[in-house]
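A reminder from the course coordinator: this example appears on the midterm review sheet, so study it carefully.

Given structure:
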């Protein structure tokens, strides 16, 4: 299994939907699924790497697709999801990635915090001020 979840607590239906969407995001990174990455990540999405480098959605996707960023396995540990007014969510978890990034292969555990928004009954990873 390329994406696994450990130490998951009981969740509401909305929290489960957010977790499933984050899993889809992780799978899309691993599988280099351009269509799913473009769907899941809202156009205003930005990613800040461990190094502090910030990328736009398009820059991030481009580096996944050209092999600069290669993800092999993801473990989502202790996901905590806060739903706000049924349309916004804050997703927090420790995410351990097996990857080769910028030529360096390794395993990194990152504290991931993503904001998500529900649009037309689907969750999207987006940026909003909480």
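Designed residues:
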């Amino acid at each position: 299994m390329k994406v696994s979840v450990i130490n998951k607590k009981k969740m509401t239906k909305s929290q489960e939907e957010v977790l499933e969407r984050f899993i889809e995001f992780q799978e899309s990174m691993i599988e280099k699924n351009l269509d799913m990455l473009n769907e899941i990540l809202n156009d205003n999405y930005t990613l800040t790497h461990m190094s502090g480098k910030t990328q736009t959605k398009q820059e991030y996707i481009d580096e996944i697709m050209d092999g600069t960023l290669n993800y092999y396995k993801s473990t989502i540990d202790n996901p905590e999801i806060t739903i706000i007014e049924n349309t916004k969510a804050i997703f927090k978890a420790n995410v351990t990635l097996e990857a080769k990034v910028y030529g360096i292969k390794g395993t990194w555990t990152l504290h991931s915090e993503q904001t998500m928004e529900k649009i037309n009954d689907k969750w999207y990873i987006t940026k909003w001020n909480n």
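The two ends are 33 Å apart (CA to CA). The first strand starts at residue 3 and ends at 6.
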